[in-house]
Amino acid sequence: MKQDILDIAGISQRPTRLTASLVGMIAAITGVALVAISGWFLTGAAIAGAGGIVAVQAFNYLLPSAGIRGLAIARTLSRYFERILGHRAALIGLADLRPLLFARLAGADISEITSRSSGTIAAHLGSDVEALEDLSIRRIAMTAATAGALAGLGAALLAGVAPALMLVLGLALTLLMTRLLAPRLLSRHYRDHGDAVQSLKGLYSEYANSSVELALYGQAERVSRILEVQGLRIDHSRLAIVRGEGLLQGLQLALASLTIAIMLASTLAPLELQALSALAGAGAFEALGSLNHSLLQRARVTAALTRLSAIASLPARAGEAGGRPIPVCATGPSITLGQGNEATTVVAGGRIRVTGASGSGKTRLVMHLVGLRRDAPQSILVGGAKVNELGIDILRNIFAFSAQEAPLIAGTLADNLRLARTGVTEETMWSALEVACLAKTVRAMPEGLETWLGPDGARLSGGQRKRLSLARALVAEKSWLVLDEPSEGLDLATEQQMTSKLDAWLRETGTGLVLVNHRSGLDWLAKDVFKL
Amino acid sequence: MPVTASEFFAAKSPEVRRSTLWWSADTLGAALFAASLAAWLGAGIGPHSPQHKLWILSVLGVSGTVRAIVQACASRHGQRAANAVKQRLRRRLFEALLPTGFRRGRLPGEDLRAAVDDVETAEGYVARFAPIKAAAVLSPLICAGLACLASWVAAAIMLATLIPFAIGMVLAGNAARVEADRQLLALSRMTGLFVDRARALPTIVSFGAEERATRQIASAAREVADRTLLVLKIAFVSSAILEFFAALSVALIAVYCGFSLLGLLPFQAPEHLNLGRAFFVLAMAPEFYLGMRRMAAAYHEKQQGEAAASALQPEVERAEALLEAMDETSALAGPLKIEALVIRYDDGSCIGPATASWPATGLHVITGPTGSGKSSLLHALVGMAPVASGRILVSGSEIAPGNLNSQIGWSGQRPFLLPGSLQDNLLLGAQMAPIPAWQALVARLGLETMLNARGANLAIDPAGSGLSGGERRRIGLARAILSNRPILLLDEPTADLDADTAHDVAVVLMEVSRTRLVIAATHDPLLLSKAQSEVTYS
């Protein structure tokens, strides 16, 4: 399953990745060869120089010195292309992963969506996918590292079987110890770090909402101390991570020089081959460094992969595939709230108010009705079918919902209205804004419908947001309109005006209404009441 | 006055210097390896005792351990330096940003990013970039100096390759800056989009607009990938330049030494080389560029650190200036008066002028249509909205907005909760002994059931899980009353409440207003009918 995500994302980039791996191998091999041949050439030259004029003339210096220059250029070029191609494969491949994950989540059961906070989802699409980018780039580095280690090994063989064997042992020991120790030394601290960052963010955004009170009651210092504790947790785990990584990288450095000393002690090969094998051994260890680095990151990447595959493997919502229609009359289905004697049924085009004291669950009931929740204790039937059996894919073709908190998206006014359905004309938008009593305000804005609202409609007042959310529900043109506290935050005059326009619109279009309200100004819209 | 990132983070601490010294000392560890390998090969030519050889191999064997310890110390000191910087910075940011967030009119997400993410970005700058940058100057010099002991020509070759290298890096660096800025912009836009669409996902699904939102995510993600690739291309060109010169210096030194050893130099040999010396300089050649390679690897952290510093500095200074202005001597409560008070927000929208005169006691309301500025006036009285002109007077003398804050009990739209017990939260503003009958007041506000069910000592978390909007609002109201402060400013005290509870609240407010000044922003007809004066916005 984990494999799947990377494959889905990387499939289009497979040729690039293969080329990158190939050039990466060339880069690693030329890197090892460059130092090895330099060492061999120098030692050979010294021996020849000491051997007198005949030996000097017998020593072929042209080939190795040209080779050294050639290798220097080849290495630089191949490294450049390895990096560019590797990053292209990773970045472009994973850019497609983000919308794919978003679509999976958006297509999953509604409880999967509402149980995740927006911060968590953003972190999945952002930093978790980034961790995979890292992994994808490292995979290429790993092929290169393996090639480099093998090249070093081949060069060591020239000095004899014993030093080559020692090198294999040294490399294997390094890999094994890193693999064994990395999770022990690092996993816990990476997790602590992630948790501490999350809780600091959570606490900060809570307190940031109460900025005025913090100032007035002189609580800023006290809150700051509370937050600083989380900050200290972050810093402690970072220091522990740095310590652990230092230990693991140090282990590799220590084993490298020890291995080379043992290699030299175990060979009787000519001096120039000793030089060659020692430097090639150092090169092999250096190549292994990037392999080890990816082992160090393993904990982080595994955690990210697990989270992402949980999203990627979410099953599509039931009903999405079948899309079977429910029994409805021409104008739309009826709604039945409650059971037995208390049951209230409204036919298509009818109107009903849901009332009850603060905290009695009005919002929960209507959100359940439109398919965004499943925890209302009351029985709810739509078109005679239990609402839980219908699912959001059917319910959203029946209901247009304006929620209590009136969530808006970052974008323009028009972007928010276009969300309601495809192919909305400007004319439709204006007439909806007219009913919602927002048209005048929008006309006064210099950029009209194209006014940028900022994240979550930040530039609008509470009442304006409510009205825009209402207008969006009107634009959707569904058979039922479901409104949760549509006039909260409006003054009485605007409320009255909006109510009568809404009444006219409902009659004209034959749309039904389910209404939740505290304020009595809306009461006359619906005679039927369902009391909680 | 804008300062550099290094000054803003105060990145020149003794810990950073220690880290720099350790990074530079790494060159000595490398020299140990190079020297012992060279000595081994040098010993291979002439006659040497086995004991001597064993010594050489032992030094070679432990040279890696020396390097390991040195590098670990360098990273640790760097991280310690960064931790100290982050802790100072967090305290400064939290204390300045939290109480002024509303006044500065920032979106909650923006401050969150500054106080958490940007602080984490400082880590890379202080822990790695700052010490490595200084070491990148020191370690090549140490390296060339050590090489000079064996062969001054080789040292000269190393230093000579530095000149074209520096020119190449400057050219690439300038191009990188422009692209990196654009990439950071695209990145932060994409992150914003993720948060936004994730938050609105239930709405998107309930209107069936998934495809549309997915398309927007796809195009933003593509744009970031393209921009990132552009930045990386430049970064890779500069590291290719770096590697080319590193490889070139290895090749030049190898060829020079080789020909010198063969006695085939086309010119008079400037010095006498043997295998040991030659091999030592060859092995040191890659180390000459290592410091700069490390710096190039930390370049990204430099850019991010600089971007964070330039975003943080103006905001935190603005916040601190606002705090200072509010913090001046507090006036004593008395009859309160505003004259032609005009509030002007950064986006140009303007509220007022408003004029009102409130006696020292009584229930008074501010009313008017939605969006007309009721809350803004309350905020202006406590220094949380930008006052453009007009005056605030207490007992006849003018005060600056915010100077009366210690006399004001406040209840806003969304009262905050501190971790602690419910009782702690209710008595938060009561510096002196709480009024003994505080439980009775809480009961009259209709919070009794909740209090009995949960217990006054029950710990609550700041998210206030389990509390409804109306309960939270009444906790804020009770807190304001229990603070015993002579002036109460209340924003919509009866919103989110059903009619019965709203009535109870109004009665309590009437009672409190006999001894204190209560000013409420509201549309509630009940409160309007009981008010002794009304300020109306239109």
Automatic annotation (TrEMBL), chain A:
Membrane topology type: Multi-pass membrane protein
Q: Which residues form the ABC transmembrane type-1 domain?
A: 18-265
What Gene Ontology molecular-function terms does this entry list?
A: ABC-type oligopeptide transporter activity; ATP binding; ATP hydrolysis activity
Q: Where are the transmembrane segments?
A: 20-40, 46-63
Instruction: Provide the alphabetized UniProt keywords.
Output: ATP-binding, Membrane, Nucleotide-binding, Transmembrane, Transmembrane helix
Q: Which GO terms describe its cellular component?
A: plasma membrane
Q: Which Gene3D superfamilies match?
A: ABC transporter type 1, transmembrane domain, P-loop containing nucleotide triphosphate hydrolases
The ABC transporter domain sits at: 306-529
Which protein are we looking at? ATP-binding cassette subfamily C protein CydC
TrEMBL record, chain B:
Q: Which domain of life is it from?
A: Bacteria
Q: Which PROSITE patterns match?
A: ABC_TM1F, ABC_TRANSPORTER_1, ABC_TRANSPORTER_2
| Subcellular locations according to the entry | Cell membrane
GO MF entry, a single one: ABC-type transporter activity
Main location per UniProt? membrane
Entry keywords, A to Z: ATP-binding, Membrane, Nucleotide-binding, Transmembrane, Transmembrane helix
Its record classes its membrane topology as:
Multi-pass membrane protein
Membrane-spanning residues: 21-42, 161-180, 230-255
Q: Which residues form the ABC transmembrane type-1 domain?
A: 27-304
Which terms in the GO cellular component ontology are assigned?
A: plasma membrane
Domain ABC transporter stretches: 336-535
Q: State what protein this is by name.
A: ATP-binding cassette subfamily C protein CydD
Say which species the protein is native to.
Novosphingobium hassiacum
